[in-house]
From TrEMBL:
Record EC number: 2.6.1.19, 2.6.1.22
Superkingdom to which the source organism belongs: Bacteria
Reactions catalysed: 4-aminobutanoate + 2-oxoglutarate = succinate semialdehyde + L-glutamate; (S)-3-amino-2-methylpropanoate + 2-oxoglutarate = 2-methyl-3-oxopropanoate + L-glutamate
Signal peptide: none
Record protein name field: (S)-3-amino-2-methylpropionate transaminase
InterPro entries xrefs: Aminotrans_3, Aminotrans_3_PPA_site, Class-III_PLP-dep_AT, PyrdxlP-dep_Trfase, PyrdxlP-dep_Trfase_major, PyrdxlP-dep_Trfase_small
Gene3D superfamilies named in the record: Aspartate Aminotransferase, domain 1, Type I PLP-dependent aspartate aminotransferase-like (Major domain)
Pathway: Amino-acid degradation; 4-aminobutanoate degradation
Cofactor: pyridoxal 5'-phosphate
KW Phosphoprotein (keyword) present: no
């Protein structure tokens, strides 16, 4: 059992046991699977991870935003143990079970939107996205889908088609699915327009309107899918008005408005859903990651008439909505309803924002700092005037940090953004420790000519 409050590094990283496993991983596991940190986990609790060599790390990655409730939450663990003793997976398509219904009921009650809703449970974020697209096409009887530049929606074929970053995600995997088009996203830091928001008056929205008028007929567009904050794209936080105008555009033209909350959902922005933060009422929301504290589960929740569009048997899957995942999700949703996670996300946000703003003032290698609550990105550049991306710097910052017991991961279409996604159970002491290590890493890299 991990008894530490803060990290403790006992060996070099990776240690000897991790090195042996890394060799086996090299021999046995597909080269296409990436790993951010060269360690193997023995146990994890709260905001801490212990590796097989006995080193304890502070986790600012949360399994890429999957452990919002913290590693091995006691109530979740107990619910899973109890469920395993009853039944593991009879398959909802064969013999139904109550935990599935309970999750659906909870999601319907907490999802934004003043309209009648239904739910479809699936396994992964990509699967939720695929089903949201299927539902939209079936409901509208239209074929064209619009997704945003810089987006990430998953690695299965339609999700990958919607995704923007070529390497490593799309390179060599084409051809992709037709009738998918890209629209501008409000990446204000890298906007080429002469004036920045609000002076630009959302030029990106005007470009979307022009695109619809000149390139694709509105009569052919089934849906627009967008992340409220782009995660893999680099923690891109658009102006609230951008998303609100995009929603209005969908309403005016009869497009299904899909908001991908796979990374932003369940407390990342200090709200259960980022849609609440931005004042949105999506037609469909996709959720996954932290919904079940790491047990594979995802969902599409939204307007009843859209969820009811398929014929019976048109959606689903053998493992979709497994009982183990459902009981975990029921506990997670109940814990979020108490409000402690959301309050702590906002407290963490204040600590992180204050520290990152001071770093921005001190180090010109930081081009931009952006985020909210427990979701932040630091964009590193070689020069603030040219904004030339500096992915090499990010790689070295990550390496320095994990060698001192703090785990960070990267993001961004240029891989030059350091991404902070701490578990919402992280304490102030832990957050300050991790951010101090981050500043040490930046100083070290600058002093050593990076």
């Amino acid at each position: 059992m991990i008894e530490n409050v803060l990290p403790e590094i006992k060996t070099e990283v990776p240690g000897e046991k991790s090195k042996l496993l890394l060799q086996k991983r090299k021999e046995l596991v597909s080269r296409g699977i990436s790993n951010a940190i060269p360690i193997f986990v023995e146990e994890a609790k709260g905001a801490l991870i212990k590796d097989v060599d006995g080193n304890i790390f502070l986790d600012f990655a949360s399994g890429i935003g999957m452990q919002n409730a913290g590693h091995c939450d006691d109530e979740v663990v107990e619910a899973i143990k109890e469920q395993v003793g009853k039944y593991i997976h009879p398959c909802f398509h064969v013999a139904m079970y109550e935990p599935y219904i309970n999750v659906a009921q909870k999601l319907v009650s907490i999802a934004p939107g003043k309209y009648e809703k239904k739910v479809l449970l699936t396994n992964s974020g990509a699967e939720a996205v695929e089903n949201a697209i299927k539902l939209s096409r079936k409901y509208t009887k239209k074929r064209v889908i619009l997704s945003a530049e810089g987006s990430f929606h998953g690695r299965t074929y339609f999700a990958l088609t919607l995704t923007s970053k070529v390497k490593p995600y799309k390179h060599g995997f084409g051809p992709f699915i037709p009738d998918v088009y890209k629209i501008p996203y409000a990446y204000c830091y890298r906007c080429n327009h002469t004036y920045k928001y609000p002076e630009c008056d959302l030029e990106c929205i005007e470009r979307i309107k022009k695109f619809i008028a000149t390139e694709v007929s509105p009569e052919d567009i089934a849906a627009v899918i967008v992340e409220p904050i782009q995660g893999e794209g680099g923690i891109i936080v658009p102006p609230k008005r951008y998303l609100q105008e995009l929603q209005n555009l969908c309403k005016e033209n009869g497009f299904v408005f899909i908001v991908d909350e796979i990374q932003t959902g369940f407390g990342r922005t200090g709200y259960t859903f980022a849609s609440e933060y931005f004042g949105l009422e999506p037609d469909l929301i996709t959720v996954a990651k932290s919904i079940a504290n790491g047990i594979p589960l995802s969902a599409v929740v939204g307007r009843k008439e859209i969820l009811d569009a398929p014929d019976e048997g048109g959606v689903g899957g053998t493992y979709a909505g497994s009982p183990l995942a459902c009981v975990a999700a029921n506990v997670v949703i109940e814990k979020f309803a108490r409000g402690e996670f959301l309050a702590n996300a906002k407290r963490l946000g204040k600590i992180i924002e204050e520290k990152l703003e001071r770093m921005f003032e001190r180090y010109s290698v930081i081009g931009d700092v952006r985020g909210t609550a427990a979701m932040w990105g630091i964009e590193f550049v070689k020069d603030r005037n040219s904004k030339q991306p500096y992915p090499e710097f990010v790689k070295e910052v990550i390496k320095f940090s994990y060698q001192r017991g703090v785990i960070f991961i990267s993001a961004g279409i240029y891989s030059n953004v350091l991404r902070l996604l701490p578990p919402l159970v992280m304490t102030q002491e832990q957050a300050e420790y991790g951010l101090n290590v981050l500043e040490e890493a930046i100083k070290y890299c600058l002093q050593n000519g990076l």
